[in-house]
Amino acid sequence: MNKTFISLSSLSMDLERVAIGYQRGSIRMAERFLKEAFARRNEIDKEAVKPYIRKILNTLDKINIEKDIMRKAEDALMYSILFQNASIVG
C-alpha cells in the first residue's frame, strides 16, 4: 500500500469522526477533525489518484459551507465511505 492510499484511508477515518461528532452534538470535536481532514487532503498527491477521486477531493469543502449540522454529518459520512472505498480498490 503506498502513501497515497494510506492518506486516503486516514482521510476516511477523520471524516467518519467528523460525522460521529456532528451527529452526537460534539461540534468542537467534529470541527477539530474536519480541520485535520482538510490538512490530510493536502497531503494527497492529486496526480496519483484517479480523476473521480480528484473531483471528490475538490468538493470536500462543501462540508464547511453547509449550515445544517445533520446534513454536515451525512455529507462527512458519505465522503468517508467514498474515500474508504477508493483506498481499498486502489
A few lines on this structure:
This protein is mostly helical.
Description:
The chain has about 90 residues and is mainly α. Helix content is about 80%, strand content about 0%. The protein contains 5 helices and no strands. It starts with a helix and ends with a helix.
How would you spell out the order of helices and strands?
HHHHH
Based on Cα principal axes, name the global outline: elongated
Number of strands: 0
Kindly provide the radius of gyration, computed on alpha-carbon positions and rounded to a whole number of angstroms: 12 Å
Strand content: under 5%
Structural class: mainly alpha
Counted by DSSP, the helix tally is 5
Topology:
Blueprint: H1 3-24, H2 27-43, H3 51-58, H4 62-65, H5 69-89
Keywords:
elongated, 90 residues, mainly alpha, 5 helices, single chain, 80% helix
